[in-house]
């Protein structure tokens, strides 16, 4: 019988290098962000995730480069989106996972695919080229 892991267990597996490559999904990214925001400010969460995601990627064989691995613009967007969803009352994880602003395609409301998936956007912050986000993006 398969058991579903709790968000806390997924977060612990992530920070301890036990979350497998196939488990490192969009939902797992949102879970780790939500869990980190429980005890950190958005700016502290961004700093934490910058390092933690890159370390995790290395541990599961994902190279952090201009074309793969850690993505600064997406990380900043989703830390802000999850934080804003929580501030708007979506404190439970299920509500965050269902928030339109946290969906997999949500950033494409603000960036073209070419800009969002460019090396520049992966390696550093790139301003939206389609529309402004409804909230200021977290920065550190």
Q: What would you note in describing this structure?
A:
The protein has 140 residues and is mainly α. 50% of the residues lie in helices and 0% in strands. It has helices at residues 7-15, 26-37, 42-59, 72-87, 93-98, 113-116, 119-123. α1 (7-15) packs across α2 (26-37) and α2 (26-37) packs across α3. The longest helix has 18 residues, at 42-59.
Overall outline: globular
Beta strand count: 0
- Uncertain ranges: none
Return the string of H and E elements: HHHHHHH
Give the termini distance in whole angstroms: 44 Å
Report the radius of gyration as a whole number of Å: 15 Å
Summed up, the domain count is 1
Tell me the strand percentage band: under 5%
- Helical stretch count? 7
Largest sheet: none
Structural class: mainly alpha
Query: Oligomer, anyone?
Result: single chain
Work out the helicity level.
40-55%
Average pLDDT rating? 95
